[in-house]
Design a protein that fits this description.
Multidrug-efflux Transporter Regulator, Chain: A, Domain 2
């Protein structure tokens, strides 16, 4: 029994245009034609179409499908196993992304229900960029520190946020003063401010050893969204992000020197 292109399109849930494309590509040519020259598909054609749609659903490109159909035994199992592996990786990635989206939404909400007035009262000009939060979650997805920071942030009350943002505002004013007064980024005052920032993170979010603090500070220069979490754009000055990064690196080196001195005294 033969079927018209319209009938096959209805059976398979594809468009007539798709079947025409498969014909022109040499992937599925109808086995017969009507007296008027219309395409007619037989049972074997339908079986082949099922195979094509199966491989398409798995994400194989048309040229690879053609190769598989020409010689079904040629590496078919190996290709299917490889495709299965990639599909599982994609499924895992999408699951992580869904979790990240959920976590980023919580970050955006700051873990506590606040009205717009309360949000401004607590956070002022500091903005939580959802896109940066999402990327940060992906970047640090396997980090124990990231998971701890998010869990502790979720547990913060409105009063906790008020206190930590108050600390941050005081620290920020001191940082701006040091920068405006020309204090060297590797000097004691700047390094002490860097250490205060590191301890602030440890006190409110997660333990922050100096090497981790360096990576955080690198983001301040690499991504303006990261620095905006520390210094709102309205308070930023040219070179301030780089200044803080240098101070953090100098403070980390100071810590490393302290450890070296302690080891040499043993």
């Amino acid at each position: 029994m033969s079927y018209s292109v319209g009938q096959v399109a209805a059976f398979a849930g594809v468009t007539v245009r798709t079947l025409h494309h498969y014909d022109k590509a040499g992937l599925l040519s109808p086995s017969d034609r009507s007296r008027a020259g219309y395409r007619l598909y037989g049972e074997a054609d339908l079986v082949r179409l099922q195979q094509i749609l199966f491989y398409r659903e798995l994400g194989f490109p048309l040229d690879e499908i053609a190769s598989l159909l020409e010689d079904p035994q040629a590496n078919a199992l190996e290709r299917l196993q490889d495709r299965l592996r990639r599909l599982n990786e994609e499924i895992a990635r999408l699951r992580r992304l869904a979790e990240v989206a959920e976590r980023a939404i919580e970050v955006q909400r700051t873990g506590v229900p606040l009205t717009p007035e309360e949000r401004f009262e607590v956070f002022g000009d500091v903005a939580f960029d959802l896109s940066y939060a999402t990327e940060a979650e992906l970047k640090w997805a396997h980090s124990d520190g990231q998971r701890e920071a998010m869990a502790r942030a979720d547990a913060h009350t409105k009063e906790d946020w008020r206190r930590l943002m108050g600390e941050a505002a005081t620290w920020r004013a001191e940082l701006l003063a040091a920068f405006d007064e020309g204090e060297p980024s590797c000097g004691g005052r700047a390094m002490d401010l860097a250490e205060e920032h590191r301890l602030h993170i440890a006190r409110w979010f997660t333990s922050c050893p100096p090497d981790m603090h360096r990576r955080i500070a690198d983001d301040f220069v690499a991504d303006p969204r990261a620095f905006a979490l520390v210094v709102p754009p309205s308070q930023q000055h040219p070179g301030l992000a780089a200044y803080l990064r240098k101070a953090v690196h100098a403070n980390a080196a100071r810590h490393a020197g302290d450890r070296t001195d302690a080891e040499e005294s043993l």
